[in-house]
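Suppose a colleague, Dr. K., hands you the sequence of a protein chain of 204 amino acids and asks what its three-dimensional shape might be. Before reaching for any lab equipment, you can write down a predicted structure in token form. Begin with the sequence itself:
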Amino acid sequence: MPRINLLPWRESERKRKRQEFMFGFVGAIVLALLIGFVVKWQFESAIAHQNDRNQLLKQELAKLDKQITEILGLEQQKQRLLARLQVIEQLQRSRPEVVHLADQLARMVPEGVYLTSIKQTDKKIQLKGVAQSETRVSTFIRNIDASPFLQYSSLEIVETKGGNTTGSQFTLYAEQKSQQQQTDDTAPAKNPHAKKAGQLGASK
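The predicted structure, expressed as tokens, is then:
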């Protein structure tokens, strides 16, 4: 006797397709979740790597800032040392000038004039003293004007002292000439007669 399948073949085919769809749907979900996990992991890895690089850059920038601060401090210290060296050099150069100035003042002060105070600020010199008469002060001023080391003398105060002591107190100012001016003033003048004789000899 032949076997006969009484189940409807359409229902069986529908059930098979439903199962295939369910397997495919579940597989797609699992694959999507897997892809999402992999993508998330890659992004997190990239972010962590970039954060590490940013942290390293911050550390290097902090080191550079510290080095720049140290360099600026050294530069300021260098400037202070250079300023001190300039002051020391200026003082060393001014030592012989002070001695020379004192020697020249001693030569210029006429008889009957006594200096009580000498004050120098840069090139300006303040002289205070006592003179037996105003004529002596005038002579002192003429000596300063004729000096190759001082110029621009100006009298500020002449005050006659009272009491039994005769004399006048005075305060005058002068300016120290520069080295070039001193050299020009102290250089021997050319002899015009010798120059003229030389020109006559050349013409012959």
